[in-house]
Write a structure and sequence with these properties.
11 helices; binds S-adenosylmethionine; alpha/beta; 41% helix
């Protein structure tokens, strides 16, 4: 147990590894499954590496959508991997195995995998280009890589609120202090090309919530606002916000999910190939 905790603390992860964050990741993956996994299906017998599977939220969707493919899902966190394994077992999924690994230093032979899938990882890395180059090494020629990332600069809403934008910016700054980049979605195209992938395409995938689709407000609250709320203590401790401003920002974010409100956010999905 202490070994697990020690290893989980050995790398910065701005959202932490709490049960609440684990549930947020599962809710996020299931709510956005259609939007983000559309177009991602792997042929039977293909070997797919899922890099940074976390608690297995995307793993379940990947494995169910491509039941004939063989997934190897890795993460740096032993604690998250243990949760991912339990969840996959509970769902009766048999085409996934798990391995602890750091994407900068992958313990696989060159050209081992037919495809690579990454979701919400690059935003947390200090050197995403190096990670992509490392991943390219274990992909076979003509194999594909699929990357999904958010971009917190893409959030806009009604009623608009400077305090709401400021607390979102606190999250961006905290992630930057940890070496990450919460605005990485807009950079996927050049990062993949710089890493040497070809046939790179990037598709923006937009979430939009308003009264014409009231159920979509639930996603805004439980995915986006919950993520911002999760860094409240850190933001105040680091002096990025005071309590009053933070509370007003959160109130204003919730206000966008009322009858006359609206909320918009864009994810970016990029696909490329190794020559
Ligand atoms: C936001 S979670 C995303 C998990 C999952 N892909 C999802 O969408 O639910 C980011 C994950 O990246 C993992 N991670 C961070 N740095 C890593 C590294 N260098 N190598 C492997 N995994 C890493 C963290 O442990 C965490 O589980």
């Amino acid at each position: 147990m202490s070994d697990t905790i020690m290893k989980d603390n050995s790398h910065p992860y701005v959202h932490g590894h709490s049960d609440r964050e684990s549930e947020r990741l599962h809710f996020q993956a299931s709510k956005l499954a259609e939007l983000l996994h559309d177009g991602t299906r792997y042929p039977p017998k293909s070997r797919v590496l899922e890099a940074a599977c976390g608690v297995g939220a995307q793993t379940l969707i990947l494995a169910q959508n491509s039941p004939g493919a063989e997934f190897l899902s890795v993460d740096i966190s032993y604690g998250s991997l243990a949760q991912a394994k339990d969840r996959v077992l509970q769902e009766g999924i048999t085409n996934v195995t798990f391995h602890q690994a750091d994407v900068y230093d992958l313990p696989f032979k060159p050209e081992t995998f037919d495809h690579i899938f990454i979701c919400f990882l690059l935003e947390h890395l200090a050197d995403p280009l190096l990670a992509l180059i490392s991943l390219k090494g274990i992909l076979r020629p003509h194999g594909t890589i699929t990357i999904i990332e958010g971009d917190h600069g893409s959030a806009f809403f009604h009623p608009d609120s400077p305090e709401a934008h400021r607390i979102i910016d606190c999250l961006v700054q905290l992630q930057r202090q940890g070496g990450g980049n919460a605005l990485i979605g807009r950079e996927l195209g050049h990062l993949m090309t710089d890493a040497g992938f070809t046939d790179v395409t990037v598709s923006p995938r937009q979430v939009y919530a308003d009264q014409s689709r009231p159920e979509s407000f639930d996603g805004v609250k439980k995915i986006f606002i919950a993520m911002v709320e999760g860094v409240c203590r850190q933001a105040i401790e680091e002096g990025l916000a005071d309590k009053e401003m933070w509370e007003k920002g959160i109130r204003d974010l919730y206000r966008t999910t009322e009858q006359d409100g609206s909320f918009c956010y864009t994810f970016f999905k990029a696909v490329g190939r190794k020559e």
